[in-house]
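hey so u asked for the seq, here:
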Amino acid sequence: MGQAKAALSPRQGRVALQFEAREGERTHLARNFASYPFHVTRPLYFDAGWLELPTVVLQSAAGGLFQGDRLSVEIGVGEGAAAQVTTQSATKVHSMERDRAVQETRLMVGAGGHLELIADATILFPASHVETATTLSLAEGASAILAEAFLWHDPKGGAAPTFSLMASTVEARRPDGRLLARDRYRIATPADDEATRAEWQAMKAQGSLYAFGIARDGASLVEGLRAALAEVGGAYLGVSALPNEAGALVRVLAPDGNIVRGVQATAWRAARRLLTGHDALITWRK
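ran it, structure tokens below
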């Protein structure tokens, strides 16, 4: 009955954050709104490589995503400000008899601003269906790093994935609406053939890291990321240039989430240094 009720009455959670910075001062969290299931920590300033950068952890009290969920995330970074937003842990997407879970994320970065949205992996349970859409408004001279990942899991120990659908759209635009880049994928449970199922059993996790902006001092963002990842093993990965000189995309396919996380951590450190000139002197995310 609980699942059926959720399908008829979607849970609509919303979080909205706005970061601002006065000249010569560190970035502060100017506005903060969160409704269930979201909770937001206070800003933490613990990266010795960038003391003006606050890290905010986005938490959930719900224990995962359920059918009927409709969640909204809005994050704004003002002119000249910089912020990092991360998550408390991986997000479970529970089994669904009908309907789906949807999360829409809107990001706005002002001129000279920088935003990092670093999410833990999404774990797809059997019969789960989740769709995410992220829209980034990026002013001239601004930059952003976005990371997302997913992996499948069967609590009963099944050797092949049985989730229903994982769909993701990420797009970047200028404030006037001009499209810079769009990345979209829809992945369903693989067809019932031995070759496809064998591939999924071997490679259970996938991740993406988007680095939007222009590298400093005339450096190549793509070449810099490729160099940083040149010695990485145990995964299939690639670095591609985004259209309209919007930045670069790192995609990784690996046997487990820890390897994906390691690749993303290396790429994040390189991307931050290339885009902002700041080294990351903290452990990946938190």
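The longest strand covers residues 129-138. Residues 2-276 form one domain.
lmk if thats what u needed
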